[in-house]
Amino acid sequence: MAGNKKTPLRKCVITNEMKPKKELIRVVRTPEGSVMIDHTSKKSGRGAYITLDEEVIKEAKKKNALARHLKVEVPIEIYDQLLKEVKP
């Protein structure tokens, strides 16, 4: 029974799909109000998970969805950084 460890699931804020945490990337608004990509998923602040897919990131940029979820203006550089991480 010790081997039955649950994989943590998180919901993508764009597709509303529940996926394993490792398939998503977290964008966080820190308590100071800055926005950054959280690779560790441990930074404090309000977070939003997004699927590591080019089309999903482009849709998020077009709809400005991360700004709505994080309740702060998200710089375009964050979306560009996400796109760079998706592309090989």
Descriptive overview:
It holds the Pfam family YlxR. This is RNA-binding protein YlxR (DUF448 family). The protein is 31% helix and 25% strand. It is of the alpha+beta class. It has a single domain (9-86), classed as YlxR-like (Hypothetical Cytosolic Protein, Chain: A, 2-Layer Sandwich), CATH 3.30.1230. The strands form two sheets. The protein has a three-stranded antiparallel beta sheet with strand order 4-3-5. Strands 1-2 form a two-stranded antiparallel sheet. α1 runs antiparallel to α3 (76-86).
Question: Keyphrases for this structure?
Answer:
88 residues, two-stranded antiparallel sheet, 5 strands, 31% helix, alpha+beta, 3-stranded antiparallel β-sheet, 3 helices, globular, Hypothetical Cytosolic Protein, Chain: A, 25% strand
Q: How many structural domains?
A: 1
Order of helices and strands: EEEEEHHH
Which strand order spans the largest sheet, edge to edge or round the barrel?
Answer: 4-3-5
Low-confidence stretches: none
What's the CATH architecture name?
Answer: 2-Layer Sandwich
CATH topology: Hypothetical Cytosolic Protein, Chain: A
Gross geometry: globular
Mean pLDDT level: 91
CATH class descriptor name = Alpha Beta
Q: Please indicate the percent range of residues in DSSP E strands (runs of 2 or more).
A: 25-35%
The level of helicity is 25-40%
| Helix/strand/pairing category | alpha+beta
Separation, N- and C-terminal Cα atoms: 39 Å
Rg over CA atoms: 13 Å
The tally of beta strands, per DSSP, is: 5
Which homologous superfamily in CATH is the superfamily? YlxR-like
Main beta sheet, described?
Answer: 3 strands, antiparallel
Organism: Evansella vedderi
InterPro entries: YlxR, YlxR-like_sf, YlxR_dom
Domain YlxR: 10-83
Protein name: RNA-binding protein YlxR (DUF448 family)
